Fold this sequence. Notes:
Blueprint: E1 3-8, H1 16-29, E2 34-38, H2 46-49, H3 60-64, E3 75-76, E4 83-86, H4 99-109, E5 115-119, H5 126-132, E6 137-142, H6 146-159, E7 166-174, H7 176-180, H8 187-194, E8 198-203, H9 206-210, H10 220-235, H11 249-261
Parallel strand pairs: 1-5, 1-6, 2-4, 2-5, 6-7, 7-8
Antiparallel strand pairs: 3-4
Helix pairs in contact: 1-10, 4-5
Amino acid sequence: MARKIVLTSGKGGVGKTTVCANLGMQLAKLGFRVVLIDVDIGLNNLDVVMGVEDRVIFDITDAIMGRCRPKQALVQDKNISSLYVMPSSAAYNRTNIMGEHIKNVIEQLDSSFDYILIDCPAGVEAGFHRAVFPANEAIIVVTPHLSSIRDADKVIGLLGDYNIEYKGLVVNRVRGDLLLNGEMMTVENIVRALNLPLLGVIPEDDAIGLSNQGGRVQSIESARAFTLLSENIHNGSKKIFDCTFKYRGILGYIKRNIKKHV
Ligand SMILES: Nc1ncnc2c1ncn2[C@@H]1O[C@H](COP(=O)(O)OP(=O)(O)O)[C@@H](O)[C@H]1O
Ligand SMILES: [Mg+2]
């Protein structure tokens, strides 16, 4: 049976899709069979981030409507053979799709995969319900900003109404230079505020932000951070990437100050 993990946040633009794509890649590289499910119906994003949009034939709504079998709606990754994406449709009257429909599709994939990662849309309404309903674990993605923390807190409360057995936190877009200068909320404070186990910290990475394939191009630092995250999720270790490392010492001090003045 697969672990079914939803990536959620309440707030949009905090990195759910980026974390979903990169975590999926790392878990697949560890040898697991992974499928990423895009439940952001009407705003397909994950297939674009994963660079498979040109190869989409069927999508999740086709699988729901019985126009294809769920496995026919999977697109295999070009580089990692055990990684698949189930794209959402770009245009559909999403009010017709219920959490039960998504759950039914996911149940048909359950025995063929080790991990089913569900990319949740922003908000806390119907789209949130559709994505959370089929999951039994949740990763809450936050950035070190008050609005993100506040939305995450709301989402954590709402998750109490679902069959979620385990919840953990990923803090994304952390800037080591700002942390050392005391200009960014610390990860410890975020963990204390939200009171959930910390699964990973991902640094702010210009290579992610600038690449036209979303999460696929990264620096060595964020690749390492995603590797640690995948290991923590898989084997329960607690190795957290240190975003401040490259800004320590005399060279780090110079880097920090250069960054401040550009
Ligand atoms: N660690 C990061 N460093 C730099 N840019 C990031 C990082 N994580 C996400 N982004 C960028 O932020 C934007 C929103 O990310 P996305 O994953 O689409 O958020 P969400 O799915 O929560 O709406 C994207 O342009 C993405 O490339
Ligand atoms: Mg997204």
